[in-house]
Every structure is written in structure tokens, then in C-alpha cells.
Amino acid sequence: MRRLFLFNPENDIALGQTDCNYTPTRAVRDFHDAGAALPLWYADTDGDMIYAPHASPEWIENRRQLFSLPAALYDSEPHVRPAPWGFSMHALRQYIKMGVAIDPTKWDDKIRKIRDLSHRRTAAILMEKLRSRLAYRLPSTPIEARNISDLERFATAHPHFFMKAPWSSSGRGVVDCSAIPRKQILRQAEGIIRHQGSVMLEPALDKVVDFASLYHASYDGIRHIGYSMFFNSHGTTAYSGNHVASDDELLACIGRHIDEQCVVSTAAETASVLARTGIHHHYNGYFGVDMMVYRPSDGSEPLINPAVEINLRMTMGIVAHKLYKRIMSEGRHGILSVRYAPNEVYADNFIADGFRLCAGTLNLIPPHPGFRMTLAVEQQPTSL
To answer: How far is 263 from 256, CA to CA, in rounded Å?
Structure first.
């Protein structure tokens, strides 16, 4: 059965609001619409289709021809296999509106389990399971606070900490509590607890570098497929982009801060632990586990936080991984950038040869009045 890809970056928020009557904000809808053509770059099988109703067919065909991409625009075929960015009842309702033949009642149990596994407590459980399997010291496990009293006790013990909504993504729903007044923290916590039932709390770490370990889950198990290095907007927790390079290069870059073999063993143990929990019996597809190299407070050598977050869905890190393998010329590196830039002129300025990107900056989505997603080639990997 042919797959139909949907870019629904609002999925984590939809899961957090129990999905029943979720209505995205205008900004979220704009981002959803802007990125609708992004699956063109990671759909990888002949017959795959993408749902991008506002994209110019000429723009889509241009990219398909230049880079030998197999996916095409959706042709109203009702019998397709949903392939969203992330699964939720909100995502399935979008497929139904497209005319896809789906009985949502048959998905109830699957979506409920995916929602449970997408809660940040899953990362905390992973941390505890890894604690006895890894050869290095792990940071303290995040705690789940279900009321303000729990939060106040934690705040008293940890003056510098992060508060995270159980379901959120791309840095949204993450609060650096060292940077705002206590009253504001409590007000935000009350709102999150009211809507999502709890907040996750963890002491702040002295971050050196962010990275992620990438996986694919199938009924046969969980397979490690590579790494990603991502970065945030300056001074914020909001996602901004990814480095696009080979796994060997990314691993070497992480290895500037910590032993490479430590990274490799952490990725392998994570796959093993997640397979033992049976995640692949409930979720099939790509996902990522965000990790971090940090400096311990005692001044000792850097260590890894192996379970910052589990993104049980497609991720921009996996997009970067696929872009490198599919279209980057040999010896080239790139920066995948996602940004809101309403005043930026949309212009193609790249060189492609042999279905590969050789130089310049490639627009990954059609023109949009607000958002840009680009892949810029770096002749020298200065950012790595």
C-alpha cells in the first residue's frame, strides 16, 4: 500500500491536550502549512505521496527532477498508509479530511499507547534503566511533580532547574527556572499541570553540546541508524537547525568533548533498553533520543546525559541524516536551518550536479510569507 506523508509538527501539543478538541494556534497552522512539502526530502519509496495542497506542482516537480526524489503530490487515493510526522488522533482526523479511508476506532489503543510513551516520564524511566548498564556516572533522574507543593520542595533543593511540560517539542514547553521570578514559575506550572496533569523537573546541567541518537522501530526490533547534532536559537531552548554531515564526522565532533566509544556504547545500550521495554510493539517508524555532553558540577571530566528527551516521531535530526545520504555531494557539509524570516527574500542560489547538492543554499520548501527551511552547503566544515 502506498504511503501518504503528512507534516504535522503540532503533534506533540495535540497529544498533550488529549487530542479531543485540539485546535492549533495561527502560528502553529502557519508552520504546518509552510513545511507541508518537507516530506518530499525523506519519503524514500516509489509510490510515496506527500500532502502539500498549497505547494506549486511546478516547484515540486523541479525538486523531484533535480534530486531524483521518488515522492509525488497526493492524488486523492483513499486507500493509503498514513505516514505522519507524528501519530495522534488529531493526525488521523486530518487524514480523514483528506478522504483517506480510516476507521479511527481501530486506532484508539495504538494512539493511547503512543501518547503514554511520548510523555517525558518515558525518558526518566530510560535514564533509570541505563544507570546500571552504562560505565559512567549519570545525572539525577528527572522527577514528575503533580502539584505545586512538589514543585516548591524541588525548587528549594535545586535553585537552578528546568521545568518541562510532559508533551512538548522543539524547546517549547521547556522553562529555565533560573531566569524568571518564582511567581511566574508557579503560574506557568499551574497552567501545565491543569492541562497535562504534571510537570517534569530536573536540575540544570552545564551543557557542552547537544546531540541525538537516531533509531528506527519495526516489529523486528529497534535499529540504531545514526547521530544528529542540533542547535537552538541564541539564548533560548527553541530549535533552530541541524548540522548535515556523515555519522563519522558527527561522531568525531562529539568526540572532541567526550570519548567516541562512550557515545557509541550509549547509543547501543539505549536501543537495547528500549527494545526490552517493547516500544516497537506499539510504534513503528523513526524516532530520536536527545542527549547531551555536560560538565559535572564537581569539575571532573565531561559526561553524557543519555536521556534528555525521547521524540517518538520523525525529527529534524532524521531529516538532516537523510538529506546527507540522499543529496549532499561527497566531501560537503551543510546546515539545515528552520527559521521565521518574513522579511527574507526567497531565492534559489545553489548548484546541483548528478542529483547532488554541490554549493549554495537550497530552499527545502516552496515560498511562504513567514517561514524558511534551507540547506546551506559549507565548503569547509567551520561550524563542526
So the answer is: 11
- Give 314: exposed, middle or buried? Use CB within 10 Å, 0-12, 13-18, 19+: buried
pTM of the predicted protein model: 0.95
Contact 170, 238 (CB under 8 A): yes
Taking all residues of the chain, what is their mean pLDDT, rounded to a whole number?
94
CA-CA distances (angstroms) from residue 324 to 67, 71, 242, 318, 338?
A: 12, 18, 11, 10, 16
Neighbours of 137 (CB within 10 A): 11
Q: What are the cell numbers at 170? A: 522543539
290-316, pLDDT tens digit by residue?
A: 999 999 999 999 999 999 999 999 999
How far apart CA 209 and CA 227 sit, in angstroms, is 13
Topology of domain 140-203, CATH: Dna Ligase; domain 1 (3.30.1490)
Q: What is the DSSP letter of 137?
A: P
pLDDT by residue (tens digit) across 206-233?
Answer: 999 999 999 999 999 999 999 999 988 7
**Mean predicted confidence (pLDDT) in 127-132:** 97
**Topology of 206-378 in CATH?**
D-amino Acid Aminotransferase; Chain A, domain 1 (3.30.470)
Nine cell digits for residue 257? 568533548
Q: State how far the Cα of 222 lies from the Cα of 238, in Å rounded to an integer.
A: 28
